[in-house]
Amino acid sequence: MKILVVGGTGTVGSEVVRQLKNRGEQVFVLTRSPEHASKLPQGVTGIVGDLLDPTKLGAFAGMEAVFLLNPVSTTESFEGLLGVNGARDAGAKRIVYLSVHHADRAPHLPHFGGKLGIEAAVMQSGMEYTIVRPNNFYQNDIWFKEALLNYGVYPQPIGSAGLSRVDVRDIGEVAVAALTTNAHDKKVYNLVGPEVVTGESTAADWSRALGKPIKYAGDDLEAWEAQNRAYLPASMLYDFKHMYAFFQKDGLKATPADVTQLTSVLGHAPRSFAAYAKEMAAAWKS
Ligand SMILES: NC(=O)c1ccc[n+]([C@@H]2O[C@H](COP(=O)([O-])OP(=O)(O)OC[C@H]3O[C@@H](n4cnc5c(N)ncnc54)[C@H](OP(=O)(O)O)[C@@H]3O)[C@@H](O)[C@H]2O)c1
């Protein structure tokens, strides 16, 4: 089957590409960058285009299914709607859209609220669809490698109300199942890990995995903002600071029913954070 992966050069999309390729599907990736296109895995075709440019939607032509995600930016809604329209107008039969867990509980966050409109467009597009709503990714912690290894600190201010963080490989598995069968049509899945984690429990898991003390940096969002001002654009700093405030107050937790449903879709229990930390610690050591 011809499947287009939007975001196929990024964290989640590259996992979707890898798993689709392993299944022998015909995989295409939309990218803005000819250089990224030239570095795709063998047998995967890059198509240069841009969801910010309505004159560059040719990548959708002839595709039977589309995986769509849009990175956090001030133009996320526009890009998402162009992605949905591009797939529908080209005659794709199926779309799988990556949203975010509990988007409806925090619509004031630009990258949560913005996804609700895209979800609505997906559901009303006339295509078969699956919406996947992942929690915070375990793989975000790759950004904190230096803080963990050199300073013994876990800096993501996720608080103590609790998150059900998820492994990107599980997201990939669900997306691939939804793209390649009709068993998940019209479903909205919360993609979560098997247990609720906090800032302190995450630091403790890293501590055990790395075999050295790791301290949670704490919930001070003013300090977090000051530390990240040099690295993030103002819009993203604003969005993430408010997201962490929401996490600290309300958490982002799965229900037992979410975990049961995901286990059934995956055919195995969702991967645990402790196992992920152990695996990464071993990779970093070698
Ligand atoms: N991180 C988390 O914990 C988390 C949790 C839940 C949901 N999410 C959601 O996950 C999404 C981000 O996924 P990710 O981390 O896998 O993204 P990512 O690694 O930042 O990759 C972004 C991808 O989008 C492509 N892209 C960017 N702008 C584009 C455009 N205008 N037209 C076409 N392609 C474009 C990029 O391709 P090129 O650069 O090659 O053009 C790249 O492949 C966001 O919507 C976020 O809200 C994240």
Q: Could you explain the architecture of this structure?
A:
By secondary structure, this protein is α/β, with parallel strands linked by helices. Helices cover 44% and strands 14% of the residues. It has 11 helices and 9 strands. The strands form 2 sheets. It has a 7-stranded parallel beta sheet with strand order 3-2-1-4-5-6-8, with helices on both faces. Helix 7 crosses helix 11 and helix 8 (221-228) packs antiparallel against helix 9. It starts with a strand and ends with a helix. Bound molecules: NADP nicotinamide-adenine-dinucleotide phosphate.
* Share in helix: 40-55%
> Which architecture name of the domain at 2-137 and 166-191 and 255-270 does CATH use?
3-Layer(aba) Sandwich
What structural category arises from helix and sheet content? alpha/beta
Under CATH at level 1, the class of the domain at 2-137 and 166-191 and 255-270 stands as Alpha Beta
Bound molecules: NADP nicotinamide-adenine-dinucleotide phosphate
> Strand count, sense and closure of the main sheet?
7 strands, parallel
**Would you tell me which CATH topology of the domain at 2-137 and 166-191 and 255-270 applies?**
Rossmann fold
Full CATH superfamily name of the domain at 2-137 and 166-191 and 255-270: NAD(P)-binding Rossmann-like Domain
Global shape: globular
Oligomer: single chain
Content of β-strand:
5-15%
Instruction: Provide the residue-averaged pLDDT.
Output: 98
**Residue windows where pLDDT falls under 50 for at least 5 positions:** none
Order of secondary-structure elements: EHEHEEHEHEHEHEHEHHHH
Report the end-to-end length measured between terminal Cα atoms.
38 Å
Spatial sequence of strands, sheet with the most strands = 3-2-1-4-5-6-8
Rg, Cα atoms, Å: 19 Å
How many strands appear in the DSSP assignment?
9
